[in-house]
Amino acid sequence: MHATTASTKQSGAALVVSLLILLVMTLIGVSSMQTTTMEEKMSNNTRERQQAFEAAEAALRGAEEFIASTVSVTADFDTSGSDGLYDGSVQELWKTISWTAGTNCAQYDYASADYSSSSFVKPCYVIEHYGTATTVTDQYNLGSYGSGAGGGDVELFRITVRGTGANAKSPVYLQSSYGKIL
């Protein structure tokens, strides 16, 4: 008679089970790494888009300030627009220009530590003079309040701004209409 021991009856079941558990844990680890990588890409894209929006919004306010403080005649607005000032003869101009500062648009310059990277492209804007709204005298002087408010022709401008994030792959375009009595 042979005496059977416990070691001779084992057929490797524990090894197979432990290898299966290890395989499942590896798959879970790889899956979580892929999810984390995707979430990092998503958060980076969101940050880039937010930077582009903030840059475009700042440039839009800068262009409005430019009109308010600098524009006194509409003769500077022409078809070439080399200074970013156009006469409004081209429909949807913002789709057709190359957005190269100093060539087709005016660059919005500002000092900010957030956007001081050498790879950051400063936002550009174009201003189109697209008409004059003729008003009746004293239309703005509601209820005869104050003096000198009077009426006058309102020059209408469309401002289009292009801002980008740090990698310039996420452009944001903003448009605004602006009126000024010259």
| Percent helix range | 25-40%
Mean pLDDT: 82
* Shape label: rod-shaped
SSE class: alpha+beta
**Quantity of strands, as a count:** 5
Which blocks of ≥5 consecutive residues have pLDDT under 50?
Answer: none
Give the DSSP E fraction (strand runs of 2 or more residues). 15-25%
Query: What is the tally of helical segments?
Result: 1
Sketch the topology as an H/E string, one letter per element: HEEEEE
Give the end-to-end Cα distance, rounded to a whole number of Å: 118 Å
Quickly count the domains.
Answer: 1
- Largest sheet, if any? 5 strands, mixed
Report Rg: 32 Å
Overview of the structural elements:
By secondary structure, the protein is an alpha+beta fold. The protein has one domain. The chain contains one helix and five strands, in the order αβββββ. Strands 1, 2, 3, 4 and 5 form a five-stranded mixed sheet that branches. A hairpin with an 8-residue loop joins strand 4 and strand 5. The chain starts with 12 loop residues before the first helix and ends with a strand. The mean pLDDT is 82.
